[in-house]
Write a structure and sequence with these properties.
four-stranded parallel sheet; 4 strands
Length: 107
């Protein structure tokens, strides 16, 4: 079974840049044989349609992340730090460079 890789990055500072970063990384992960999981992309239009409190989005993102096999961190923010802390507590491998994921078996 292919590995699910949760993409973690800031969102609030520049949502459009974050969306594009997630799209670009998603293509790289797919090309490498992984399944990208981007809660940023998944929640973006829902948030635009009807904004919710930051903590609701963070809790949802962490819940999704906990179902994944690894986390790829693109940059840093308070939300990313919370996701990293939860990944560590859940023993989910964390990568800070997409090139390092090649050592993490795709299957």
């Amino acid at each position: 079974m292919k590995k699910l890789i949760f993409i973690s990055s800031q969102y609030s500072a520049d949502p459009e840049k974050s969306i594009q970063d997630h799209i670009d990384v998603s293509h790289q992960l797919l090309d490498a044989g992984y399944i990208p999981v981007s809660y940023v992309i998944q929640s973006h239009y829902t948030h635009i349609d009807r904004p919710h409190d930051y903590l609701i989005w963070l809790d949802a993102a962490i819940t999704v992340m906990q179902k994944c096999d690894a986390v790829l961190v693109l940059d840093m923010s308070p939300g990313v730090k919370a996701e990293i802390a939860e990944a560590k507590a859940s023993n989910i491998p964390i990568f800070y460079d997409i090139d390092d994921i090649e050592f993490f078996s795709a299957d």
